[in-house]
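Let us work through a complete example step by step.
Step 1: write down the sequence.
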Amino acid sequence: MANVDGPLKGMYKVHPIYTLTTADVPLPDCMYKMKNLHRSKQDTRELTAEDLDRQQEAILAKLASLQAEVEKLSQSQHAPCTRGDQIDSGDHFCDIVINANPSSPPLSALVLCHLLKQQMKIHGSVHVHSSVKSVPARLKELFTGNHEGLRIDYDLAVTIIWKEVPHGASCSMMVSPHKQTAIHGEGSIARYLGRLLKPSYDSTDPATATEIDDWIDVAMLQLLRGNNKEQAAVVRSLNSRLGNRDWLVGSALSLADIVTWSALHQAQQVNSAPNNVKRWLKALNNHEAFQAAQGLVS
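Step 2: predict the structure and record it as C-alpha cells.
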C-alpha cells in the first residue's frame, strides 16, 4: 500500500468557466427580451410623450371600431321574446327548450302550449335524453302532425326533452342560452308562457295578477312540495274558495287555475278532493286546452 504524503486536495481539476480576475460576468437585466413592436428597425430614437399619446389614440380608435362591430353583431341576434306582442311585430322568434322529468311532466306548460297554439304558429318536438331509460309513448307523442318548413318559419318553437333534471327540480326551461340563465320550476315556466299569451296574465289589473301569483306560489310550494298537513290545508282552502265561484281568480280561466290543476294531479290529491274542488276539476277537464294534458294523468 502506497503512502500518501499530505491531505488529498481534489479528485479532479476543472478549469473555471469565468476568470473573475480578467473579465466581468455579464448579468441579465430582464427575464425575456422581446422585439419592440411599436418601432421599426430603422427607428432607433427614444419615444417621447407625444409619441406615446399618438400610439394610445390609435389603440383606442381600434378598440372603438371593434366595439362597434360587436354591437352590430349583437343587434343582428334577436333578443328573447317576453311578450306576445313582440312575436306579432315579426322581430322576435321564440325558440324555447323545456327539460322535464317524465315521472312528473309539467302539465301546466302543456295546457299553455295549447292556448298559445290558438294565437300563433307553434312548432313542437319531443326528444328523449340518454339519462332516461324509458319514456311512455304518450309522452313522446305530445306534438303530433307534420311540421312543414323551417323552425324559424314559425312564431314559437317548443322542444321538450325528457331527462333526469338535476338539483331535485322537476323541470327547467331555456329561452336564449347566450342571453340568460335557465328558468327553473314549473311555476316560473308557466309565468313565462303566460306572458306570451295575448293579453298576458299580468298586463291588465295588477291586483288580479298579484292574486294569480299568490295561487301559483301556494300550488308549487305547499301543494306540490309540502307535507301531508300542508297539502290538506291547501285543498280545504281551495274548496272554500270555489264555494261560490267557478274559477280561482276572476270570472274566467286564469293561470292560477292551470297551475293549481297541474299541482293537484302531481300531488295525487284529485281522487280525495272535496265537492267544490271536484266540480272545478270537472269543468277544467272538459276544457279543450286540457285535453292533451288530461291524457297524461288518466
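Step 3: interpret the result. The two ends are 108 Å apart (CA to CA).
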